[in-house]
């Protein structure tokens, strides 16, 4: 597989520049270069021809007037970073994520496609192909399951849909496979998809939080070769032992890297060529610190030797995905993705060279990138779906039925369990949350099936009046709060914005975060999205939300790959058994 195509003339010129028969297009001189293959720093010359490195070594290249000479005396040169597990849809999108990545030295992204799957395949393919023109090399995964409750395989997660995705040249692997219960039930489509990924020569990534050694064995037996869910050094070791790559994660919901690094150091477990680093689709506020440059920084600060961290963010993922002949190292034949650092332990690059072009300096992008025409894509329109309905305050009250009320308790930002509580009833016969400011009503609306699921939630914040969000894993809408009127107003506002997140209090909007692309992401540049998400997080924190990431809570209340209960269009579901504990109602 080719990461970036090369024509015959450019290919021949590589030979000539390498042999010093023709001038180089770029000469990087004076830098201490990290050879990721041998883990040595050496002061050598780098000669670039077109998009690729032609030569790395002692000899000065032939130059001409057109040769760009990069004086890199005293600098360190490392390969462009690879993010092996991105979810480029957490309010940002794959284009804005790629721009942001490039400016900070992440020159290859391996990305989730889940949030594209509401589009017809031709449009998914069009987006992936457009991104192939971006200086950041972006490949995608083909999901085998939608990470939400369903009763049978349906497009695009049926055999035909899986085949179409897996065969696309911009799709590099199957996964991440979140429906492990489905695998255990020997779901034919899932088993087909795993085998098919391997049949077409691609990797299959798992998702195994808390998995036993037996489960890891079974997953490896099926062909799963990586997992990013280790939270202890022992987890890492268990994955390595069954032949999997262990991806060490530092994300906004699982900032585990310091624990993992210290645990590995204490246990004397050697750094392995089968370890990779990931920021795993962190929500925008975490990216304020950077992308893979920040992940590497966290690893180094926790005690990982810098060289090991660079190798885990370049060569190791390149080898894993079978693209190391073109990315992941500073060596002849590779794309000239080269970062200039001020010192070995400072991973945020001063300058970014991508595909042989100076593309970023001090965090600023220097080259034009690829801009999508979003109107070319038919993301579901939130306001269109709501057209025939009128938001009713009544939806956001819970009638007392004389039985205990289901309370979804947040154990952390994304893990929930259910309790039953006897709550007071007001004079009009509605369940009252008056006595406990920690409680709020959590309502899910499915506008297509016209279903409403209600629960009480504990832990999203204190005295929250009304918040509505179309940013959810299942594409249902969530409304959370203690004031029915504010909840209705927040939902109404979100409809007017054509998707996003809004908060209302005392008849006023206190926050508006428009996410007009499918109600889930914004076309705005990453910096603006970070500002917007920080405003949201700040406000929710003021309301006493003390879990790690309130955005991920919104996303995952509906995602059935997480324990123990989830809110779905059919009702409140116990994940493990699939049982509906409390059914939904018709709107
Ligand atoms: N499984 C998942 N789906 C969507 N976004 C994610 N971010 C981290 N894990 C994710």
From TrEMBL:
EC number in record: 3.5.4.2
Show the coiled coil region(s).
Answer: none
Ranges for domain Amidohydrolase-related come to: 78-357
Superkingdom of source: Bacteria
Task: Give the residue range of the signal peptide.
Answer: none
Catalytic activity reported? adenine + H2O + H(+) = hypoxanthine + NH4(+)
Domain named Adenine deaminase C-terminal is located at 414-577
The protein's matches in Pfam families, at most eight in alphabetical order, are given as: Adenine_deam_C, Amidohydro_1
Task: Please name the PANTHER family in this protein's record.
Answer: ADENINE DEAMINASE YERA-RELATED, N-ACETYLGLUCOSAMINE-6-PHOSPHATE DEACETYLASE
Q: Which family does it belong to?
A: Belongs to the metallo-dependent hydrolases superfamily. Adenine deaminase family.
Protein name (database record): adenine deaminase
Species per Swiss-Prot/TrEMBL record: Brevibacillus borstelensis AK1
């Amino acid at each position: 597989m080719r990461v970036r195509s090369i024509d015959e003339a450019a290919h021949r010129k590589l030979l000539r520049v390498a042999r010093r028969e023709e001038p180089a297009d770029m000469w990087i001189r004076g830098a201490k270069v990290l050879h990721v293959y041998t883990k040595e720093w050496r002061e050598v010359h780098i000669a670039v021809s077109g998009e690729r490195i032609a030569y790395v070594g002692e000899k000065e290249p032939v130059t001409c007037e057109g040769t760009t000479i990069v004086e890199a005396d005293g600098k360190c040169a490392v390969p462009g970073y690879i993010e092996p597990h991105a979810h480029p849809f957490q309010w940002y999108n794959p284009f804005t994520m790629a721009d942001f990545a490039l400016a900070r030295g992440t020159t290859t992204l391996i990305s989730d496609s889940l949030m594209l799957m509401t589009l017809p395949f031709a449009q998914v393919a069009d987006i992936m192909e457009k991104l192939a023109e971006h200086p950041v090399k972006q490949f995608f995964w083909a999901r085998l399951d939608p990470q939400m409750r369903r009763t049978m395989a349906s497009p695009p997660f049926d055999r035909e849909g899986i085949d179409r995705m897996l065969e696309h040249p911009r799709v590099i692997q199957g996964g991440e496979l979140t429906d492990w219960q489905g695998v255990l039930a020997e779901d034919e489509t899932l088993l087909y998809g795993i085998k098919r990924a391997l049949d077409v020569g691609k990797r299959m990534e798992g998702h195994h939080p808390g998995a036993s050694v037996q489960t890891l064995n079974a997953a490896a037996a099926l062909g799963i070769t990586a997992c990013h869910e280790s939270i202890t050094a022992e987890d890492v070791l268990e994955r390595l032992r069954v032949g999997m790559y262990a991806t060490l994660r530092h994300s906004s919901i699982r900032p585990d890297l310091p624990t993992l690094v210290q645990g590995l150091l204490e246990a004397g477990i050697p750094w392995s060529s089968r370890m990779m680093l990931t920021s795993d689709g962190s929500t925008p506020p975490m990216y304020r610190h950077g992308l893979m440059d920040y992940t590497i920084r966290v690893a180094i600060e926790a005690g990982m030797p810098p060289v090991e961290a660079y190798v885990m963010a370049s060569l190791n993922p390149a080898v894993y995905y079978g693209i190391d002949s073109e990315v992941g190292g500073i060596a002849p034949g590779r794309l000239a993705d080269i970062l200039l650092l001020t010192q070995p332990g400072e991973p945020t690059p001063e300058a970014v060279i991508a595909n042989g072009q100076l593309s970023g300096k001090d965090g600023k992008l220097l080259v034009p990138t690829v801009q999508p025409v979003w109107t070319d894509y038919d993301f579901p329109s939130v306001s269109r779906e709501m057209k025939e309905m009128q938001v009713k305050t009544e939806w956001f009250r819970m009638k007392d039925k004389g039985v205990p009320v289901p309370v979804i308790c947040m154990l952390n930002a994304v893990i929930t369990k259910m309790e039953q509580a006897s709550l007071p009833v007001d004079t009009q016969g509605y369940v009252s949350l008056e006595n406990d400011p920690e409680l709020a009503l959590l309502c899910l609306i499915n506008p297509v099936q016209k279903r409403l699921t209600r629960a009480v939630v504990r832990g999203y914040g204190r005295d929250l009046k009304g918040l509505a969000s179309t940013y959810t894993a299942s594409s249902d809408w969530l409304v959370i709060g203690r004031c029915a009127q504010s909840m209705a107003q927040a939902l109404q506002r979100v409809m007017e914005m054509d998707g996003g997140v809004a908060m209302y209090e005392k008849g006023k909007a206190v926050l508006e975060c428009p996410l007009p692309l499918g109600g889930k992401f914004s076309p705005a540049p990453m910096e603006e999205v970070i500002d917007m998400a920080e405003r949201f997080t700040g406000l929710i924190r003021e309301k006493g939300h003390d879990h790690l990431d309130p955005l991920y809570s919104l996303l995952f209340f509906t995602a059935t790959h997480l324990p123990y209960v989830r809110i779905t269009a059919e009702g409140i579901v116990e994940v493990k058994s699939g049982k509906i504990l409390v059914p939904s109602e018709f709107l």
